[in-house]
Amino acid sequence: MKKLFLTLFLIFTSVLLFAYSKPVKDKVISVSGLINVYGNEPFTFIGIKTSSGEEYSLSASEEVLNQLRKSQGKRIEITGSVKQADKNQEKPVVEFNSLKNGTLTVLNWQYADKSTVEPSENQPQAIPDGRF
Predict the structure, then answer these.
(1) Number of H helices, E strands in the chain
(2) Mean pLDDT rounded to a whole number for the chain
């Protein structure tokens, strides 16, 4: 009985030890591009499109995403870690709210054009038909 228990214990612990792999560090990059909102309400998400045609969906806190949403159409510089789709797969897995170059987790961002002013509560905002 002790041998059976010891054998089962060793098998169980070895399975647990080999079940987890070492986490892969995401690559940190800096990109500059235009902020875009993709999708249809209420299922929208924020992304950035660079001048070279790369597109990343953005992941950040709600506060940062709201600030970026207000900056739609403006040129932004973003530093962050990118999680790319596995290109070795025969049929790539399409994730919900993900763009072709992966998901960029925002670590830091700023306006690329220093003359661009951040939108504030006091500035007039355009209503859907384009009037102020």
Answers:
(1) 2, 5
(2) 76
